[in-house]
Amino acid sequence: xxxxxxxxxxxxxxxxxxxxxxxxxxxxxxxxxxxxxxxxxxxxxxxxxxxxxxxxxxxxxxxxxxxxxxxxxxxxxxxxxxxxxxxxxxxxxxxxxxxxxxxxxxxxxxxxxxxxxxxxxxxxxxxxxxxxxxxxxxxxxxxxxxxxxxxxxxxxxxxxxxxxxxxxxxxxxxxxxxxxxxxxxxxxxxxxxxxxxxxxxxxxxxxxxx
Length: 210
Prior knowledge:
By secondary structure, the protein is an alpha/beta fold. It has helices at 36-51, 70-87, 96-103, 132-138, 150-155, 173-181, 200-209, and strands at 6-10, 16-22, 25-31, 60-64, 90-94, 109-115, 118-122, 127-131, 144-147, 160-163. The strands form two sheets. The protein has a five-stranded mixed beta sheet, sandwiched between helices. Helix 1 (36-51) packs parallel to helix 2. It is elongated. The termini are far apart.
């Protein structure tokens, strides 16, 4: 493992996880479903205390900033931004789709369930919200799609699908460390949630004002 000290937060799903990478290896704490908001900071403190680090000892903080549950994404991004600002250290945003693709590097595409019969589709060049029909038209027949949800796998039987476990924070550490070494850490102000779909409240407000 790299001698860099990096904390990565993922609360994009119902639960989540927090991982710490350092020269001593990788340690991860899992967050129970719907408990990220209340237990996330406790997990961060646990990891830092176990490693004997202060927050300011970290080289950077990374966060999976979406797509996923609106509430989960918002909690993780807010937590990461707050820690980054408090410690004065850089922040690295990671797409959950990129992390999913990194689990199986041979896969050209990654897909996640977006609900309402739609999907989040990611490749090396684009990330978007698509219908099943759009998905089938965008993904070449010979391409591999990596998924982590049964519903998505069942909906894409016409494609070459690889099913993997849902990625956790430690699955994103390789991408985060590469970004850190490449100097791509940014300030907290530069990081936004990656929703891909606008929240219902925002769309309702737009309709009301229109």
